[in-house]
Amino acid sequence: MDISSTPVPEDGCQAEDIEKEALALKNLQEVMAEIEGHLAQKAKQRSRIHSAIQNRPEESYFSKLDSSIKKNTAFVRKLKNFTEAQKEGILKDINTLNLTKYISEVANAIVEAKLKMTDIASILQVCTVLHEKYVDFSPQLLEAWQKVLSLKKDEKIPNPSKTRVDVRFYADLISWGVLTPKEGLPLLGSFLTNLINGDKEEHNSATIILAFCKFCGEDYAGLVSQKLVQDAERFKLTVPTSSWLPPDKRQNVKNLLRDYYASLCKHLTQDHKELQNFERQNRRILQTKGELSSERKEKQEMLNQSFTKLLNMTQQFADILGEELPELRQDTSPRDEECSVLELCGENMSDQARETLNDLLWENEEARQFYENLPNLSVYLPNLIPKVSTEPVPTPDPADQLIDIEKEAKEIEEGQSVKEEGDEDIKPAELEDEKEDVDVPVSLQSNKVLLDSFLTTLSACVNREMIDSAAIEFSTNLNTKHNRKKLVRALFTVQRTRLDLLPFYSRLVATLHPYIPEVATDLCNFLRQDFKYHVRKKDQINIETKVKIVRFIGELTKFGMYPRADALQCFKQLLLNFAHHYIEMTCHLIETCGRFLLHHPDSHQRTKVYLDQMMRKKSMLASDSRYLTMIENAYYQVVPVDSSARSSHIKIRPPLHQYIRQLLFVELGNKGSTNKILKQLRKLNWKDPATASYAIRCLTSAWKVKFPNIRTLAGVVAELTLYQEFVGHRVVDAVLEDIRWSLEFPISKFNQRRVSMAKYLAELYNYRMVESSVVFKVLYTCITFGVSFDYSIESDLDQPDNLMRFRLVLTILDTCGVFFSSGLAKKRFDYYLVYLQYYYWFKRSLPIWTDDNPFPVAIDFGMRDMFSSMRPKLKPYKNLQEAAEAVETLEKELMNKLSQAMPELQMDGVLGDDTLACIEEEDMEDGEEIREGDDDFMDDEQSLSRSMSQMTTRGETTQPDDETHNVEDDRCVVTAPKKAFCPEDDDFMAALDRMVAENIHDRGKEVTKPPAVDIAIPWQVKASLKKPCDGTDKNFLGDSLGGELGGALAAAEASASAIVTPSSPVTVDNPTVNFVLMTRKGNKPQFKNLAVPSDSELALNLRNREEAEKAEKERVKKLTLDFNERQEEEEFQDLYAGANRPAVHNVNRDRRGRFQHPKGVPDAELIFGGPRKNR
């Protein structure tokens, strides 16, 4: 049966292959037909232009067109800002305007326009029409292009993006026939030649040449895509080519482009080699140092980006030109630890290798400067002669060195200590110093005060500048034999707690060493002797002194004062006696100079062996955890962690899973990313069980999201449920299951996860994904599940010292407790607070909490904050007895209500258990209110906010025994918002449009008058008018304009009585108004008083204007006050109506979206009653 069925799939595969071949042939024929149509269209366009220029209109035709400057300049301005949408308007303007005198401006505007690639076809049609009508257009256009495309040798392109479009535009002008090949090709050829020849090194203009090849390569070089040629050869078809240019010219352009491609390939190969070398150096640094500097990371990222960009352009050039891509050889060098630090060193070390070695030796550039750049004392003391010999240190034979290292490794592993000569009678170095101090000659006591002052200030030198100054001062003023001994003693006897001075003292010794080597030699001898003394003594005291000795040795080693071989010998001696204080001494020595010894070529191999032996001894060490931690910290501070061990534990996920995790765990919470994440999640294949299961698992993992972003994650789930209903159900089920699991297995390492899931559940309630009954069930479970209220019985699920459940409850209440403020949820919350306080006081009264181990204040403060924010008027219970009495009273009250509502229910044994059970706190009255609230369900549904999930229920009863209610409780209805169409909306929109149209029509008829601008009165004149002659204190000043030369500045009294001038008495029969007339003589203004009768037109106009302005202000003030009073009255009525409105038991329906004010400026005319009249 199997044999007979085998030919069937073969026939199916053959049929499928035939179908694919037919489809490919059809696509190829369509592409070739498109190419032929494009070439035919260009040929037809060239012939049409050639015939059109022979029949250009005469001058009488242009005289009938519009020649106004305004319209012609506007047309030129349009061309400078040309877009594809303006094509029809510009073609229409060409037929109505006479552009004979503006052809040069039109040509320059077309060339200077900032076009896009999509605008080329439209601007070509405009140029064609202009060329057909105007004889001078083509020469002027060519002249304008010569200014733009005139490129000198080695000249940089200022704006590559515009040049890329310009080159294609100019080439299409030639191929369309607007410019003749004889006129246009020389400019194009010179531009491309200079551009290519000047860009064969950096290839900054590769995008310009690539655009020319894509859009114009078919006409000028006969370029065809390599894929198209291969398909045509497979189906034995001929690719149509353009015959517009002669073959020799096309071949010249093609050769020029191939030369540029060859240089591009060479550049790509060099960049690839440079990138590989840099990556190889980074691998070496990672193997030896463990990390890369930020500069090297940035440089590698920049090299990767430039190489990727260059490779992309090279691939596009290869496809267009039909060439092969260059072979990029991969790096085959070993990538393991064999590429060690020793390869970086040598006699002919390059600058790059030296820089790499410096990065390995020192932590940063500042440390390298501190240990290597020392001041030159010969600058300050020219007579000083260096005393240190510069003979090179003989390098040992590598073979002998490896043999010695192997022997030492065996000695350390076996614990054999080799005794040196004189080890038995080693004494501390201080005794020799005291003997030397007794024999100080009397002749050297003259500068004792100066030396003591120098040594006193030496302990205050805590930076590089101060210690360098101290070295210069000692070498210039205190450089004697006795002072050198005193200096060595002072350096050696530094306080054991001042470890911060050791690097600076070592720098002082290194600075003096070239000219005063005795200081370094004596100090190193003292340290070596004291180190041997402490190692041989093997006591468990003076640990601070021992640490000071080894750290001093390490600092001097980094300055090169203490021989590296001796430092390694100290390391070896400590490893031979690797216990107690010697462990601490070893760790301090490694922390100080371990990095330097490991990465220095001379000591690399030996240090590496010693470190390995130290870790072996650590594995066999039966010591306390403090020593183990010190050893690991010291080792990993020098040797980087092996990345291969960590990479073996990395889980490899499919790309789709990685993308889902990237969306939810990385991008979630970024500004403006919520809508994008929701759209991407909607695009997933939710019909695939594997994809849907993984996405739901990620949506459930709230502990992997940043804590503030849990709210956003809940919002995403709520929005996604509108499109995939099962997502919300499965996420809520998983969250509840996780919370239950965390209560059943109270493991401390999952505490953060438990808090996150509690927060997530509360946020899901805020987005209406769960009912309040579910939240209260979880809250009751937190204080009842596995809880023992008997002091003699200890529960494994709720240990006496475990207060994690309080944190879960407080997290839930802090997130969604504010919504338990009305209706049925308020009663439930009040009942729950009674039981929560009982649980709180029970946990607090446990005997585990004593004065030495007090109850955590964080829980106490959390409870207080919860009460102050949720129920500020509620008085909390003060002890366990009050809480127990409250619980008993509450249970009796609820049982009485339950027995009245359901008398057939047997109440025996309900309260028999001592454990606190989850009670049912609602009564029949609440159920009646729920049934009343069902009638308003549809009205409440329409007001739900779009940003929240549209999940509501028919009721919220928590009777677990009533199956009929249980069906309604657990059912959630997911509905999307629907727009309700009604005729009132259409009538409203029609009335609104009509009102807006009438308002615009009325406003168009109004004549707007510019307001009169008053000239301010000069302060000299105003001061003279402050005191009128009639003895009154008040004076009213008004301003007006008049006069042709300088204008008139008037000051008028506003009162009905006259103002008297100083020269005339007061007359009631002839009241006047005093004006000040300003005239100008030369550059100096002059002011003259002018008395005008109060009944004159000037005075009457002034008074009428002031009275009209005052009346207008009073009217606006009255309207504003009336508007405020009306608004306050409406707000009061709303508050009164809200207070008397019957309570709705579904709290979720009571939440409305925040009111959003209408955008834009309010309609002032609608508020103040019609348009203002002209005055």
From TrEMBL:
It comes from the Eukaryota. Residues 944-958 have a biased composition (Polar residues). It is found in: Cytoplasm, Perinuclear region. Involved in nonsense-mediated decay (NMD) of mRNAs containing premature stop codons by associating with the nuclear exon junction complex (EJC). Recruited by UPF3B associated with the EJC core at the cytoplasmic side of the nuclear envelope and the subsequent formation of an UPF1-UPF2-UPF3 surveillance complex (including UPF1 bound to release factors at the stalled ribosome) is believed to activate NMD. In cooperation with UPF3B stimulates both ATPase and RNA helicase activities of UPF1. Binds spliced mRNA. GO terms for biological process: nuclear-transcribed mRNA catabolic process, nonsense-mediated decay. Keywords: Coiled coil, Cytoplasm, Nonsense-mediated mRNA decay, Phosphoprotein, Repeat, RNA-binding. GO terms for molecular function: RNA binding. It comes from Simocephalus serrulatus. It holds the Pfam family Upf2. One of its GO terms (cellular component) is exon-exon junction complex. Residues 924-942 have a biased composition (Acidic residues). Residues 69-296, 452-641, 658-873 form the MIF4G domain. Its main location: cytoplasm. Residues 924-967, 1143-1175 are annotated as: Disordered. The keyword Coiled coil applies. The gene is EOG090X0143. The keyword Acetylation does not apply. This is Regulator of nonsense transcripts 2.
